């Protein structure tokens, strides 16, 4: 990939640029973790901590890339604000991420998450649903309890958070519904619309916009960051799909090829169904529709997706989206410094996830 901005001041390479965002995330990891865990007060009834607070805190402390909350801080800083003022909004996005993962693992019957047993495996489905619900409530409390933010700003942030949640739910409904109804008449464009809803808003676009709002940025900058974030968020999801096809348990923190086992319609699948002949297309559909097919068939499906050009075309689409975002970010008037460099390196970070 060679998006605009790959060569920066001082002759920095694309690889160097791709590490800037990772470094930014690591710099803010401890403050983000403190904001996530510090607001969860242990309940008064003697059994409540064991049933709710500690399982949620353990899940949050178990890891996660923290890219989404870091993007809130980044959006604030490049817009001229103090990122520490955006820590509540950052925690809100990550609490929503926790809720989504806990609930997704139940729906997907996933056994592991972040290198350990999924919450529903450890605590049972009933409590896991409740813990996930609680994480959703925590996300609102993070914003409402943010000190130093005006009531008007907190209301605007709650609106952003709610819109983000709704878009994610809509995308999830399409994703799960297509699998339930054995829909294989889907085009790459159908996938891109679904993934924009399910992932692009909450993974990149809304976090950047929320950070800019905290900084007091004008509406034009907020919306420009949001639009660039939609391209990046979509590329991010495609990269995740490709990692599931080509990654390892050690890298992913869960078993790879889970999307095939769950019969998910990824961009690579839609491309492959276009590229395979009718016999091989039918074979791929049979495996995807079987749900939890034997491992040998899952591996065969992965080979068919590659053979149909799905991996190659999906990677090319991710790179195209990253180039679009890089051009958009280069055209923005941002507060120059390490944060701006980190933001402009984000397209490289996203695309490198496809390797």
Strand content: under 5%
Question: How big is the Rg?
Answer: 20 Å
Kindly report the name of the CATH homologous superfamily.
Farnesyl Diphosphate Synthase
Regions with little confidence, pLDDT below 50 for 5+ residues: 1-12
- Number of discrete domains: 1
Total number of β-strand segments?
Answer: 2
Distance from N terminus to C terminus (CA atoms, Å) equals: 12 Å
Structural class: mainly alpha
| Outline | globular
| Percent helix range | over 70%
Within the largest sheet, what's the order of strands? 1-2
Q: Please give the CATH class.
A: Mainly Alpha
Mean pLDDT: 90
* Biggest β-sheet strands, sense, barrel: 2 strands, antiparallel
Write the CATH fold name: Farnesyl Diphosphate Synthase
Helix tally equals: 16
CATH architecture: Orthogonal Bundle
The ordered string of helix (H) and strand (E) elements is HHHHEEHHHHHHHHHHHH
Which descriptors would you attach to this protein?
mainly alpha; disordered N terminus; 2 strands; two-stranded antiparallel ribbon; Farnesyl Diphosphate Synthase
């Amino acid at each position: 990939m060679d998006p605009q901005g790959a060569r920066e001041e001082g002759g920095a390479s694309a690889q160097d640029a791709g590490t800037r965002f990772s470094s930014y995330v690591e710099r803010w990891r401890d403050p983000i973790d403190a904001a996530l865990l510090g607001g969860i007060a242990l309940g008064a009834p003697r059994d409540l901590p064991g049933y709710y607070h500690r399982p949620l805190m353990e899940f949050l402390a178990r890891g996660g890339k923290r890219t989404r909350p870091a993007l809130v801080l980044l959006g604030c800083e490049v817009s001229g604000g103090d990122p520490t003022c955006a820590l509540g909004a950052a925690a809100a996005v990550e609490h929503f991420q926790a809720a989504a993962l806990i609930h997704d693992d139940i729906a997907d019957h996933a056994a592991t998450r972040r290198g350990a047993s999924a919450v529903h495996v450890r605590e049972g489905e009933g409590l896991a649903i409740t813990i996930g619900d609680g994480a959703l409530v925590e996300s609102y409390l993070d914003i409402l309890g943010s000190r130093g933010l005006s009531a008007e700003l907190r209301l605007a942030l709650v609106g952003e958070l709610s819109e983000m949640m709704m878009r994610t739910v809509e995308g999830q409904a399409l994703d799960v519904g297509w699998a339930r109804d054995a829909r294989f008449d889907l085009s790459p464009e159908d996938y891109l619309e679904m993934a924009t809803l399910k992932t692009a808003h909450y993974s990149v676009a809304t976090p950047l916009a929320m950070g800019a709002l905290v900084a007091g940025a004008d509406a034009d900058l907020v919306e420009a960051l949001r639009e660039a974030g939609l391209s990046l968020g979509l590329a991010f999801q495609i990269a995740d799909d490709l990692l599931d096809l080509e990654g390892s348990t050690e890298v992913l923190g869960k078993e790879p090829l889970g999307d095939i086992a769950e019969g998910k319609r990824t961009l690579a699948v839609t491309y492959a169904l276009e590229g395979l002949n009718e016999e091989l297309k039918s074979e791929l559909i049979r495996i995807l529709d079987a749900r939890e097919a034997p491992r040998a068939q899952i591996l065969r499906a992965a080979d068919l997706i590659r053979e149909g050009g799905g991996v190659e075309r999906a990677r090319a689409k991710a790179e195209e989206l990253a180039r679009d975002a890089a051009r958009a970010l280069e055209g923005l008037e941002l507060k120059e410094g390490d944060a701006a460099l980190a933001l402009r390196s984000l397209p490289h970070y996203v695309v490198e996830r496809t390797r």
